[in-house]
Write a structure and sequence with these properties.
By secondary structure, this protein is of the alpha/beta class. It is about 30% helix and about 20% strand. Strands 1, 2, 3, 4, 5, 6, 7 and 8 form an eight-stranded mixed β-sheet that branches. The protein has a five-stranded parallel β-sheet with strand order 10-9-11-12-13, sandwiched between helices. The radius of gyration is 25 Å and the shape is elongated.
Amino acid sequence: MGDRADPVSPVRPAPISVMDLTDRRTIARGREPDPERVIQPSFNGQDPTALLKQVPHRGTTLPPRLDIITIPRGYVWFGPGVDGIALTAEGRPVAETAMFARGDATVSEARLREAIDVAEDWVTVVDCGWDNHYHLLTLAMPKLPFARRHLPEAALVLPARRPTPAADGRPAMLDQLLALDPDGGRIRPVADGLYRPRNLHLIWPNHSQAAALHLHDETFAYFDTLAQAASAAPARGGPQRIFIERVRDTRLLDPYAIRSLDRLLAAHGFEKVRLEQLDMAGQIRLFAGATHVVAAHGAGLSNIVFGSRRLRVLELNLDLDGGGTLRPWFLLLAAGRGQHYQYLNASACELADLTLGLAFDRLMGTGRHAARLRLLRLRGRFERMMSRWTGRRRA
């Protein structure tokens, strides 16, 4: 037999971090995060460490900036589960744009050779998670005015809508948001495929967390634009105290916590709302008129960006990754709006009857459960004193 060499497997190009792309220019400077000032403890002694661990730029000397990153002859990929993945000219996927990919983000050399060449500059603002309300509303849409202002010659492209109509016949949420954007008609929908424009532009914070975008005031100015287009004046008679009820909520499974929560919501006049039953303009008006909102961690809570400064927020958070951290994304949104923000950590047993009651005390400005706690402490102290006195008598 001959000395035939084993076939060599092609080397898959390693992903590259958006922070390692060097062709960039700064277009906005953001605020330093100050989360300790923003968080209102739901009860005395609450430890916010689990919530603060992922706050972008916290504990670093890196000043928050928003940059335009240019990838000459880069690629962009649109398709189910891979929307908005950017690749360098060598085919290296940009890791942050592929973070939520539902599948392999790498592309073979053969596929790269088949990419559709485009003789113009493109800018894309979506990542693979854009079909989630939070990603679309707060991480993708606010980049549109930056793109229009700083890249006027580039085509602004988004994935073409696929045939997934809502059950009630309403347009998809992307269509609804673009209808509220004064320049939404200038957005170009692009069919699924792999494209290679002359220059591919990304708009990204100088931080691996895309939510660092919420450290920029211009982001919230865009939400005001959408609210004005939705005629966001609160409707007469609309609920002011709302609980966001999810159709299939796996985050509040403890029946004791659910009973305590239901009792407190009823006692304080909260109305349960299912956002799936409202169009985007209706959701904007709902939050614009609200004074209090309680919700489990979820994308629907993104709508606090349309609430006023008087809005008071209680988030029922949960360690979703098992790493001992909570996600601070709605803390950042509330901070950007100057709203009162509290949370409870379901993973740390903070949805017990007493801590829930204390959280509602703080949220509503009442003191009923705080008085109950004082009575329990006094009772415990009295029982300890009686135990010591009884022990002495027996001695």
